């Protein structure tokens, strides 16, 4: 009887999914029909207008237009020569611009409004690198849902996120925007964020179109210098750079943004191999590709186009559908079509993709559906958004060191000194790319701690930066002013415990913020050493947007917490971890090197032909540093202890190899663990990394409790791409490890 019900249930589920699929197809067909009907009415100029995206007249996130250009832009709106706008803030402004276009242009095609809602709109969640450290896909998806609800409430229907550039170089300031060094974790995070932003109904008033960026290879900018050339083999391109983008496309991401960088000699914006052959061809991506800010124009300084007209020609041929702030398409595409250098069908294809998205967003049914000023006020910073922000913030914190169980602090602890400018800073925790957040809207560490105890005294010690940092201007680091040391040292001398909050100002990482060294910026390490000379009981809380080379701290400070830039609820999350109300569970999504000289340093490296010491100099090493990182990928401690035992590898089914083990909480408090599964293909036609993450599970265990953790390895996990992007699955021996980080776990081996 039971089997009868099971079969009926499975039939029902199948029927529902079939109906859903059919309804999706039906709605897609209906939309495509409406697109074609509209396209037939459009002039060539109006079609090209849809491919033209202007920045609003308020904030800029790239080189700003001059006065003349700004005046011309305004006329283009009325003439239906603009399809999209970025950086317009609030329902009032959105409605104003939308009305101008809908009422004054001939066909009244609504604009789509985009913005970099990278980690929250008003309620700011942790920077994406921090969220990746949570390894909690549900929390990451929820964070994106909150961002989407708030972005949609202020009139936006498109975010230029998730940024899913894999990077192995923390000198590059934009590592704060991504999910770190690993393609498997990066792909999982990409999907969670796309689903969070887009939901199941793009026309709903709390969802927005997502944008997988930057396509592709930007995270491999040479020397970590922003906008620099990228020269990687297609083997790395296919196995490391592209998997998160493929996952985002498979998750139905609606848009992709290409990147500033040259990839193997061709600027990504004009790179046909990337955009037409792979993305639109092999992957059958049916969304739109938008350029990055002026990246069509930048093919001129790249030395790939002699002028803007040729840049427009190269970009459209390569598959770039929308022009962000180059003015290339609106100025030159018409003549390129008239001269026969560009076919109108190429223009039609780009316009179809753009119009389809606008129909899916519901903008044709109601161009003002995202302009509800009442909802705008009720949705922003609402309590459940702030709760979600706290939840993901706590989960993003990584405990790097905790000698002798120094942490958590006893809540009755008295005589606590808090030192460091970042401890009182309500701005830096918002990180870079903070969209519409009010300045100083974060809960500071000091404020978070004071909710626990008032037995706290504060001394700044030293500024991190000089003056007031801004998004678009250089940020000056305080390299000389130590006048506050005396007060801080005196306070430390009189205190039982010292909490030092050190790291980077919120605008010391992000776009245009590459660094040549990864030490604590400015005089902060001197301050740490000065305090350490009078009081060894220091808890170092790091507030930073990238891995840092904190070797001295690691050798001398008993407790170190990686607190990144955690957003609006930063101080609350940190205080709850320091006082033990939340047991830290984060794991590093990116390797922390000991030295900049080791970069690029990452866990999933190749073995080389001379991996081991030989007693002579002839092996792959440095004479002045080890090959080891300061902290490895996947590393993070807990107030609990987790023991791994009983590894089992079942190869009965050669197509689905079952790997399992038991994880036990042998500590005294409940805690969350991230069990990670790594493989190594020992012999293959193309060498494979010494380790590759191919699975992870995050779960909570009470003290003394155990959990059986199981993973299944199939071709999807054991295969790899060749240099042409063809998927290979080869027989042979594989090492497998299940563990608490990329360097600690139970190892086994199997053949298939
Ligand atoms: C910037 C960034 C890109 C962003 C765009 C619009 O230069 O590279 O990530 O989405 O311009 O702000």
Which terms summarize this structure?
about 750 residues; TIM Barrel; Rossmann fold; Immunoglobulin-like; five-stranded parallel sheet; 22 helices; 27 strands; about 35% helix; binds alpha-D-glucopyranose
What features would you describe in this structure?
This protein has 752 residues and is of the alpha/beta class. Among the domains are: 23-113 and 268-274 and 287-363, Alpha-Beta Barrel (TIM Barrel), CATH 3.20.20.300; 394-586, Rossmann fold (3-Layer(aba) Sandwich); 642-751, Immunoglobulins (Immunoglobulin-like), CATH 2.60.40. Helix content is 33%, strand content 18%. The chain contains 22 helices and 27 strands. The strands form eight sheets. It has a six-stranded mixed β-sheet with strand order 11-18-17-16-12-13. The chain has a five-stranded parallel β-sheet with strand order 4-3-2-1-10. Helix 20 (551-556) links the parallel strand 17 (538-543) and strand 18 (559-562). Helix 7 runs parallel beside helix 9 (243-250). It is globular and about 75 Å long. 54% of the residues are buried. The model has no long low-confidence stretch (mean pLDDT 95).
> What are the segments in which pLDDT stays under 50 over at least 5 consecutive residues?
none
Alpha plus pi helix count: 22
Structural class based on helices, strands and sheet pairing: alpha/beta
Q: State mean pLDDT (0 to 100 scale).
A: 95
CATH architecture of the domain at 394-586: 3-Layer(aba) Sandwich
The shape, in one word, is globular
Question: Main beta sheet, described?
Answer: 6 strands, mixed
Bound molecules: alpha-D-glucopyranose
CATH superfamily of the domain at 394-586: Glycoside hydrolase family 3 C-terminal domain
Give the termini separation: 39 Å
Amount of helix: 25-40%
Radius of gyration: 26 Å
CATH class of the domain at 394-586: Alpha Beta
Number of strands: 27
Percentage of residues in strands: 15-25%
What is the CATH topology descriptor of the domain at 394-586?
Rossmann fold
State the strand order across the main sheet: 11-18-17-16-12-13
């Amino acid at each position: 009887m039971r089997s009868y019900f099971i079969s009926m249930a499975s039939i029902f589920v199948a029927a529902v999914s079939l109906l859903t699929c059919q309804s999706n197809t039906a709605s897609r067909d209906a939309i495509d029909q409406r697109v074609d009907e509209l396209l037939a009415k459009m002039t060539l100029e109006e079609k090209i207008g849809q491919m033209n995206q202007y920045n609003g007249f308020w904030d800029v996130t790239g080189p700003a237009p001059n006065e003349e250009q700004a005046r011309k832009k305004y006329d283009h709106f009325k003439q239906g020569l603009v399809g999209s706008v970025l950086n317009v803030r609030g329902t009032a402004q959105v409605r104003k611009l939308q009305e101008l276009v809908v009422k004054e242009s001939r066909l009244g095609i609504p604009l789509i409004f985009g913005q970099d809602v990278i980690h929250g709109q008003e309620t700011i969640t942790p920077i994406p690198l921090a969220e990746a450290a949570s390894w909690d896909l549900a929390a990451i998806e929820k964070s994106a849902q909150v961002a989407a609800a708030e972005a949609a409430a202020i009139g936006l229907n498109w975010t230029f996120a998730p940024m899913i550039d894999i990077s192995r170089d923390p000198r590059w300031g934009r590592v704060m925007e991504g999910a770190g060094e690993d393609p498997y974790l990066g792909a999982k995070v990409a999907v969670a964020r796309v689903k969070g932003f887009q939901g199941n109904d793009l026309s709903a008033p709390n969802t927005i179109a997502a944008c997988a960026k930057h396509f592709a290879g930007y995270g491999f900018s040479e020397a970590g210098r922003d906008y620099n050339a990228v020269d990687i083999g297609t083997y790395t391109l296919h196995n490391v750079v592209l998997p998160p983008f493929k996952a985002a496309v498979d998750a139905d991401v609606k848009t992709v943004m290409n990147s500033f960088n040259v990839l193997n000699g061709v600027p990504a914006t004009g790179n046909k191999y990337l955009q037409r052959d792979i993305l639109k061809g092999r992957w059958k991506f049916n969304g739109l590709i938008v350029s990055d800010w002026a990246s069509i124009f930048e093919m001129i300084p790249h030395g790939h186009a002699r002028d803007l007209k040729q840049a427009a020609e190269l970009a459209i041929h390569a598959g770039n559908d929308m022009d962000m702030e180059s003015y290339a398409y609106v100025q030159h595409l018409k003549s390129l079509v008239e001269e026969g250098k560009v076919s109108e069908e190429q223009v039609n294809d780009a316009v179809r993709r753009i119009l389809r998205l606008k129909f899916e967003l519901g903008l044709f049914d109601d161009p003002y559906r995202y302009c509800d000023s009442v909802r705008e006020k009720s949705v922003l910073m609402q309590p459940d958004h702030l709760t979600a922000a706290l939840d993901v913030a706590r989960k993003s914190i990584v405990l790097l060191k905790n000698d002798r169980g120094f942490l958590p602090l006893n809540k009755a602890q008295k005589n606590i000194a808090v030192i460091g400018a970042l401890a009182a800073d309500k701005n830096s925790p918002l990180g870079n790319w903070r969209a519409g957040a009010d300045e100083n809207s974060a809960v500071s560490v000091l404020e978070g701690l004071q909710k626990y105890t008032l037995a706290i005294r504060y001394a700044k010690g030293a500024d991190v930066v000089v003056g007031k940092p801004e998004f678009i201007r250089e940020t000056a680091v305080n390299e000389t002013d130590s006048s506050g040391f005396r007060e801080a040292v005196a306070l430390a001398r009189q205190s039982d415990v010292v909490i030092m909050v050190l790291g980077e100002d919120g605008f010391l990482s992000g776009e245009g913020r590459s660094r040549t060294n990864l030490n604590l910026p400015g005089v902060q390490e001197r301050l740490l050493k000065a305090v350490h000379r009078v009081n060894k009981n220091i808890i170092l809380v790091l507030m930073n947007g990238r891995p840092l080379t904190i070797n001295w701290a690691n050798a001398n400070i008993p407790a170190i917490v990686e607190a990144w830039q955690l957003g609006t609820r930063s101080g609350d999350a940190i205080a709850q971890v320091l006082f033990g109300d939340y047991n830290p569970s984060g794991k590093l999504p990116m390797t922390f090197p000991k030295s900049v000289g080791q970069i690029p340093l990452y866990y999933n490296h190749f073995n080389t032909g001379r991996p081991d010491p030989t007693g002579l100099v002839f092996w792959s090493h440095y004479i002045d540093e080890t090959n080891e990182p300061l902290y490895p990928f996947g590393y993070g401690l807990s107030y609990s202890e987790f023991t791994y035992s009983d590894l089992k590898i079942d190869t009965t089914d050669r197509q689905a190899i079952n790997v399992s083990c038991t994880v036990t909480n042998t500590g005294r408090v409940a805690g969350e663990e991230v069990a990670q599964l790594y493989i190594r293909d020992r012999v293959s036609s193309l060498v494979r990394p010494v380790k590759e993450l191919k699975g992870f599970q995050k779960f909570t265990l009470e003290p003394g409790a155990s959990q059986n953790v199981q993973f299944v390895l199939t071709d999807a996990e054991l295969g790899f791409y060749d240099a042409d992007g063809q998927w290979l699955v080869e027989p042979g021996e594989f090492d497998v490890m299940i563990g608490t980080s990329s360097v600690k776990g139970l190892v086994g081996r199997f053949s298939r």
